[in-house]
Amino acid sequence: MRAVLQSALADLADVPARSRWVRSGDVALHVLDYDGDGVPLVVLPGITSPAITMDFVARELTDLVRPIVVDVRGRGLSDSGKSYTLDDYADDTVAVLDGLDRPLLLGHSMGARIAAVVAARGVPLRGTVLVDPPMSGPGRGPYPTTLDAFLDQLEEAQRGTDADEVARSWPRWPRREQELRARWLSSCDTDAIAATHAGFESEDFFTTWPHVPGPTVLLYGGESPVVTAAGAAEAAATNPAAQLVEVAGAGHMVFWDQPEAARRLLREVLGNW
User: Fold this and answer.
1) Per-residue pLDDT at 1
2) 29 φ, ψ to 5°?
3) In 10 A of CB 253, how many CB atoms?
């Protein structure tokens, strides 16, 4: 049921990046490459976030870095995959990183989990920024957003939705981001969402996190139900080399909830590297 709307494709004309393709096994991955001479920053979005939904973050960083935002398999213009494990996603990311000189790696939510696995493999990186990674897992309770909630929103997009309907689920978001979600959510694969959500509860972030080398920063929402105060404390204790940075007033959708503050803190992190 995946569909990329004509109106969604037209959005790409307003993005200051070029589309290019990376092959990962039998999966073709689409990325938005903002070009330039800066250090490459590969960006991995969340479970239902095609690459273009991170444009409002990436375009504000081009004076510091060269953002390369990935349509993760099963989202946006990238192919669907036969499976959607963290290792599958990590393999795809390694393919994107190939040929880049010690890039930076930034992931939000699902993307943060992927970034942790890639970094823990010892891939040469200048640093990682993990934004509000799901800390659910075996024995840790369920992910705060149910699979049904994700699938209901996907069904709305598949039948045709608009920014007003999106705003009922995400009222704090900037209007442009609500509009982009309305046009792009239908590009997400139902199986990808279901398998990834299952992984949030069967694959433990804390199995990988202690092995993520520095420099690494865990950026999290001060009001996030995904990275709670207890979760942040455990993250600090289990990887003492990491820096934890709270975005006050933000929930799990850190950049969407507090765009200015989150981008400012991210720029400070990247500026130190």
Assistant:
1) 76
2) -105, 135
3) 22
Q: Tell me the residue ranges of DSSP E strands in 61-215.
A: 65-70, 104-108, 127-131
Per the CB < 8 A criterion, the answer to whether 187 and 9 are in contact is no
Model confidence pLDDT, tens digit, residues 125-162? 999 999 999 999 999 989 999 999 999 999 999 999 99
Query: Which of 44, 47, 18 is CA-nearest to residue 33?
Result: 18
For residues 20 and 12, what is the distance between their CA atoms, to the nearest angstrom? 12
Alpha-carbon distance values, 198 to 85, 163, 229, 253 (Å)? 10, 28, 23, 20
- Are 44 and 106 in contact by the 8 Å Cβ rule? The answer is yes
**Distance (Å, whole) CA 112 – CA 219:** 10
Per-residue buried b or exposed e for 24-57, using 16+ beta carbons within 10 Å of the residue's own CB: beebebbbbbbeeebbbbbbbbbbbbbbbbbbbb
Q: What is the distance between the alpha carbons of residues 244 and 231, in angstroms, rounded to a whole number?
A: 11
| Calpha distance 57→144 (Å, rounded) | 25
Query: Model-level pTM?
Result: 0.97
